[in-house]
Amino acid sequence: MALKYIDQMDLQGKRVIGRFDFNVPLNESGKITDTTRIDKALPTINYILENGAKTLVLMSHLGRPKGEAKAEFSLEPVATYLAEQLGVDVVLTESCKDKGIRTLLELPGTKVILLQNLRFHKEETENDLEFSKMLAQYGDIYVNDAFGAAHRKHASTYGINAYFPRMACGGFLMKAEVEALQKIVDKPQSPFVAIVGGAKVTDKIKIIERLLTNVDSLLIGGAMAYPFLKAKGYEVGTSLCSDEDVKLAKNILTQSSARKLVLPVDHVCSKEFGGAPVKVSEINIPSDLMGLDIGEQTIAHFREKLSGAKTVLWNGPMGLFENENFAAGTFEVANILAGLKDAFTLVGGGDSVSAVNKSGLSSKMSHVSTGGGASLEFIENGSLPGVQALKFGLN
Ligand code: AMP
């Protein structure tokens, strides 16, 4: 059964309740330092307000208050920013459990209500059904546009769906994310090349195994590469490389699909983390150096593997890209992807997304996913609990 989206719902006169991802970074004085997550929710919110909804209740979490009301995690800055962007009053409740919320929804002047941080209540992360039921009372239609939280089985993303038979749907951000990720998961157009970087093999082992089943090539960069190189018997010097990760890499290398792996053949190293850069033009890294970026030959090799690709997935930087001495590999990969003709390019995962944004090339990618953990889990499992739950009441 296909998922329904907000533009397939009759909103006329309805009370809508929506789960959004307003988990924005705040500075010490409580000011929002990056509004991207709220901005991405605006098309859905505006659509609801412009298409006849009687009221709109907005829900989100912010940070990890661990079940307690803590002032530093208040959604107040979000309410202020939303009111500015929407040009309407946004009433922030004291708590999700305020007795007066239902009465407030009946008042003629009230249109938009933002519930205070969902995670001030431990019932949210426990997926408590009574809590879901209470939230469900605030709407006739439920919309989930919080893709970044859809890998969680929480009361506002999962349990709540049970109370909206045929009345649950996804928002526009959810739609864009799901449709883009489905292109990677369901029959990606070949040649399909994935690039995986970053620091920890442990975190990405499942995605590597999953990708090896359907990619044509899997390029490995960043600190991810060293456990694989070590497992193959190469010297990695003092590079980030735990015994546990080498074990995991060895395991993958025993599988026949491991022939699709493409590893670095040269490196940019340093004597210490973030120190002066030293080029190492071969696979083996001297014992007193650590690898911090992929080298020029590797970049050329990756470029060759990517030429003609029809589908490309990129997760994780190719090196310590936050330091300009070790950023070339990551930015070159962004450049290569930006220059591909007729390819579907998807960038997912926090650090590769910030690298693409920093390179100014995000508009040249087919899709830049907003949800780090969520996009990885989607690729690993083919969907997410919060997405599947939207289908609960369809039958
Ligand atoms: P992840 O969260 O696993 O995607 O890792 C991202 C982090 O890995 C970034 O902060 C990078 O600076 C870091 N990283 C990537 N390559 C290396 C490397 N060769 N050595 C140390 N850190 C690295």
Structure overview:
By secondary structure, the protein is an alpha/beta fold. The protein has 2 domains: 6-175, Rossmann fold (3-Layer(aba) Sandwich); 187-379, Phosphoglycerate kinase, N-terminal domain (Rossmann fold), CATH 3.40.50. The chain has helices at residues 36-50, 76-86, 101-106, 122-125, 129-136, 172-185, 201-212, 225-231, 243-253, 296-306, 328-339, 350-359, 372-381, 385-388; strands spanning 15-19, 55-59, 90-92, 112-114, 141-144, 168-170, 192-196, 217-220, 261-262, 267-270, 278-280, 290-294, 311-315, 344-347, 367-368. The strands form 3 sheets. A 6-stranded parallel beta sheet has the order 3-4-2-1-5-6. Strands 9-8-7-13-14-15 form a 6-stranded parallel beta sheet, with helices on both faces. A 3-stranded antiparallel beta sheet has the order 11-10-12. α1 links the parallel β1 and β2 (55-59). α10 (296-306) packs parallel to α11 and α11 (328-339) packs across α12. It is elongated. It starts with 14 loop residues before the first strand and ends in a 7-residue tail after the last helix. The mean pLDDT is 95. The structure holds adenosine monophosphate (AMP). Residues 198-200, 203, 222-223, 240, 291-292, 316-317, 319-322, 349, 351 line the site of adenosine monophosphate (AMP).
